[in-house]
């Protein structure tokens, strides 16, 4: 999905809204936004706007959930269309950075799976962007919960970033890897494996595994399809 970088939703730049959606794959509601530093007024205004444009909908239990249009929006890109050859070079550079990231002892997370999908695989002279999905797992998990929290808290403190909401030290451990992989390249559109598995698959959808266990990734997709299938 191509989006206009100059547009706004709920008073916020559209790219900021898209990035917020990507930052909170497990839920998107007023409390989430307030924890991220937005005022209650701004959070509610944005939620209303997303409901109006059809990117969010209220379920029967009153919770908000992302619509198919909302999932498409979260994958949107404002990058100009690029030549396939340019995207192919970017993919090779991306995989080099995956290897570098996994060797970087300063990162707490390791990349265990990576896939490419979308217009890159369909070919053509020009494509919208390079769609990728990665799975991150902790390099180590201390058995003691206090030591676990201390490890992430110390790591976050070393980054020099401001503590904006509860749990941001855990989010940062993943986000720093994503930033490293993206390397400021607008051609790359990097998603979590969770989002990749959950996204709507159009007829003819295809993907290519770049890293990881093919059977494990296929099993995740099958499990999601089975759970998403209506009960007779």
End-to-end distance, in Å? 33 Å
For the largest beta sheet, what order do the strands appear in spatially? 9-8-6-10
Secondary-structure-based class equals alpha+beta
* Strand fraction: 15-25%
CATH class of the largest domain: Alpha Beta
Helix content: 40-55%
Q: How many DSSP helices?
A: 10
Oligomer: single chain
Give your account of this protein's structure:
The radius of gyration is 18 Å and the shape is globular. The strands form four sheets. A four-stranded mixed beta sheet has the order 9-8-6-10. It has a two-stranded antiparallel ribbon with strand order 1-2. It has helices at 14-23, 30-35, 40-53, 68-74, 84-103, 119-122, 145-159, 168-182, 193-198, 214-228, and strands at 8-9, 12-13, 56-58, 64-66, 82-83, 109-117, 126-127, 130-138, 188-192, 207-211. The chain is an alpha+beta fold and 232 residues long. Strand 1 and strand 2 form a beta hairpin. Helix 5 (84-103) crosses helix 8 and helix 7 (145-159) crosses helix 8. It is built from ten helices and ten strands. The protein folds into two domains: 8-74, Winged helix-like DNA-binding domain superfamily/Winged helix DNA-binding domain (Arc Repressor Mutant, subunit A, Orthogonal Bundle); 82-228, Beta Polymerase, domain 2 (2-Layer Sandwich). It is 48% helix and 18% strand. The two termini are 33 Å apart.
């Amino acid at each position: 999905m191509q989006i206009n970088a100059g547009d706004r939703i709920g008073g916020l730049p559209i790219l900021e809204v898209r990035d917020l959606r990507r930052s909170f794959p497990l839920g998107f509601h007023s409390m989430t936004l307030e924890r991220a530093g937005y005022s209650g007024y701004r959070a509610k205004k944005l939620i209303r706007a997303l409901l109006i444009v059809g990117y969010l909908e209220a379920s029967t239990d009153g919770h908000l959930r992302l619509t198919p249009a909302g999932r498409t929006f979260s994958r949107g890109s404002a990058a100009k269309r690029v030549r396939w050859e340019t995207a192919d070079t970017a993919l090779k550079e991306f995989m080099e950075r995956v290897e570098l990231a996994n060797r970087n002892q300063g990162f707490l997370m390791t990349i265990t799976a990576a896939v490419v999908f979308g217009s890159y695989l369909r070919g053509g002279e020009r494509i919208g962007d390079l769609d990728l999905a990665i799975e991150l797992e902790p390099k180590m998990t201390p058995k003691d919960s206090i030591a676990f929290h201390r490890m992430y808290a110390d790591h976050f403190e070393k980054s020099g970033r401001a503590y904006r909401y509860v749990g941001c030290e855990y989010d940062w451990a993943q986000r720093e890897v994503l930033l490293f992989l993206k390397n400021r390249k607008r051609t790359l559109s990097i998603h979590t494996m969770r989002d990749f598995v959950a996204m709507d698959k159009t007829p003819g959808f295809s993907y290519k595994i770049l890293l990881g266990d093919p059977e494990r990734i296929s099993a995740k997709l099958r499990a999601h399809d089975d759970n998403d299938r209506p009960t007779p």
